[in-house]
Queue: 4 jobs
Job 1
Amino acid sequence: MTTAHRPTWAPAKGHEEQGGARMFGPSHKHSKLDDNSHTILKKRADGQQTIKELMEKDFRAELEEKEAKHFKKKLSGAAGAGDDLMLGNGAGDMGATFVPKPLDADDSDDDDDDDDDDSDDDDDEDDTAALLAELDRIKKERTEASARREAESAEAEAVEKAEELASGNPLLNLRGAADFTVKRRWDDDVVFKNQTRGEPKHAKRFINDTIRSDFHKRFLSKYIK
């Protein structure tokens, strides 16, 4: 294991016996991480299930009492549930009693059920046919509207293209005052135009001396003289 992470309590010092086995006294310093911690054991306070409290409790009596309450509640619930169905949430709310309707042997329930089923089927078929007809009508209207929009857009494009062809050529666009003169530039009548046209051009030369260079001479003539 490396000791590079540990502090150097006895650093190396250069002297005439450097490299030999130097003797030095033990260090009296220590790290705070080496201090003793958690020297006191925590104990339960009163009311936190101490040994004395647990010894005084009668667990057998408590268990028998809980079992008696459970079986009493279970038996009372089974005895209270009769043949009648109770409508309620069951928690202290008895609600209304549901009494089944007595059946009559002379009633023809099967026939009524068959008639109801036939009428329901007929109604469903009528509703389906009406929905299909409405769907076909909506599709037809949308198709006609899209065709009409396409025709109008094609007609508008044709008219715009014809107008562009007619007005694109200035020789054919003679409806207004035709002007075939060449337009002047915006800087034709300015005062300061081509100011450096007549000035002589000086060729740039390189002088390896900051005092005798052309730039230094221009600087002196501009700001010193």
Note: The CA atoms of residues 127 and 133 lie 10 Å apart.
Job 2
Amino acid sequence: ELRFACANWFANRSGLGRPLQLELLRDGCALPQQSNVTLLPSDCFEENCMFALRSAGGSSTSCGSQGGCVAARPLRMPPDWSTVAWATPYGPFIFCLQTDEVAPEDVFGARCQVTTFRPRLVLTNASDRDLELRLSEQRIIRLAACQSLESHWPVVPGGDEEALPSTTLHFRSLSKSTCKWSGVVLCADSVAGSTPFLLATPSDDNEVESDQQGLLAATRTSVWSVDIAPERGALAVSFRQGSDFVAANRMFLSRASMAIR
């Protein structure tokens, strides 16, 4: 029995959909692909492959053809991982490349590697309430309860190519009384972990008027947490209600109080 195996694969998990499609080329010819998996040449870690972004219906039907190509750039597969900032006519994209070994038992004992192409930033609403996000470019998007979305943003040209791309955003909960915007959320590898945020919600006017003893404040607050988990160039940012941190007033003075802002 004689078996042939390709040692290097490329898995397209970019999330790009119509009208866009991604194609890899070498010397002007499209590399063989099926079901978002492309077979790579043996020198893909030393030599560039051309990443071609095409509009729907466009394809390289022959060597050197650029039919339907809207953007192209050369990239080398990383031995471990790397990030990719790509400005295109359809907008900016931020991706990461991650290379992993394939379990030999899954490929009949062959030794293979797969490089996965995926968005750098994925936002997840882990709460049961819809959220609004105000992104760094002042674009506002809605993130439904239990929904995940990939996010891309412009990268300043001429910046530090070794630095990992980062961005900022604000968020608020959508309920009967819409919360005010949160403080700045920095989406970066350097702030991995959980960060609590205090969101203020204006109290109902009728409630304030009926509050004879002044027990209700002008605003109500709720605590939310943003969890940031970096993994080899990818960045997962999730939003949830509550916090892992607890504040306790252990003062013995009767007039001592504590305020969280």
Note: The chain has one helix and 19 strands.
Job 3
Amino acid sequence: MRSPNSTPNNPIAPKELKELKRVYEQLCYFAEKAHAMERLSVIRDTLAEYHRPLTSSMRQRDFFLSTTSSHHRRISVSEQDQEKRMIALQDEKSELERKLSDVRSRPVQHIRPQDTAAQLRSLGKRATKREVQNMMWEVDEKLDGVIDWDEFHLNFERNIRDTSGLEPAKFYHMVQFLIYDHDNNGMVSIDETMNMLYARVGREQMETTITKLFGGDDGAPIKEVGHQGGEIDFARYWEVVIREQQKRFHDSDLGKIVAEKKQRKKRAAT
């Protein structure tokens, strides 16, 4: 099995390949890492806020309070408690990072059904056991119940080449969302999506895809809501990409043949 640093010739742009590796590494044993990763994010935000430089107005306020005798003792106690809390958080942060490092350094890295289910839950999508199994089946070429890098990479490449809408793609759609979600906040922004799409499909097709994802149905104007030009969550993304895949199949030669056969059966039955 190749490592994520080794890939066959493929149409994936270098920047996108780098993000694909990032997502693969995130998904491996994700069920074991999810809680630690979420907690680490909270701790880092708390520590960053604690160490954030004070504004001049905040310094003036703190100076005034510190020189007021009725507040002096209370502030000292509060600062000591805050410092103790920050030390405890630093210790917890170190322990969580150690645990994550242990998982990431396992010699065999792969994605299990529980990892796919956990990732979907983190994106706000509840999937049944059968739905998760079906998503795994789309990628699991070796039929060993897990997804390795070769299978992961092959599935992604097949889907970006697909023009018929026939390629099983639900696992791919989840992965593509995670690639776009570079800052891992559970939302995909216009800026994040443009950065990935432009190198692969060019400006015209990029703009069409952006409009479908972030605008209304049938090419309505883009809704610039949220950060980085506009954001959508996984539910909106999933709805659009599944609909577009179905439309791509109906517009394909095979889709037209299937539709014509259905029409003939319908006419024969009447």
Note: Residues 163 and 248 are 7 Å apart (CA to CA).
Job 4
Amino acid sequence: KRGSELRNDPLTEAELRALWDKHDFDRSGCLGQAEARAFLDDVRRKYGFPEKLPTPLADKILGNLSEDDSGKVSWNDVRQLSGKKKHTELKKTLRRARGQLNQQFKGKKDESWGAWLNKITESSEAEVVKTDPSAKDVPTGEPEEFVLHALRADGVVAPGGQVLTSLIIEVRVVRGDPRRGRENSRDSEALNEPYIEHDDTGAATGASDPCWEKPAKFTLVPEKGMYVHAFICDSGMFGLTPLADIVWSLQEASA
């Protein structure tokens, strides 16, 4: 059985509010589809569900939270997760999803769990946009797959002479240039900013001159004003520590 036990207690209102403020970056009082999916991505981690949710399942969970059919999620919708009813519903859904994923994975001897999960998640995300281009907050247009494969980096050094443990590249798609208004776009606060999509390369081989075998990939419909923000991070016991970063517009990244 893959995955640890799911969280027993509901998220507190304070925990939910912190996640809400992180993702309601335009302060509109509602989360649009991309914002709501990113919000739910953080929630499932809080519940101890490390696997990324296939988009149809994520949208079903968000639909059950929303009190109307506007396609948006309000704070009043979200705060219900601090109560026993919605917490129990979400936990049952995640437990059922984990069981289904484990069942589907049986017999896939030629693939790793992570590689197989990435494949079905990416295909489901592309399919939901292709089959429902009229869905609220989903821009019309064809989804595109973006792949960032960093082969190696030279001379990576941790601040203060710390020992590097496990280097990964965290790649995020964000709205607006993350360098604007910041003296340092690679500080830890930058990792707390809202994002539209994200993936990482997994751990590198080597420390000072790391190499990565796995690319970071995501599928989305490009929009004006989207940027790619990539961090080289040390993923130690205290979470991600950004060491270096680079920013491209989505058009530059796809060129």
Note: The longest strand covers residues 226-236.
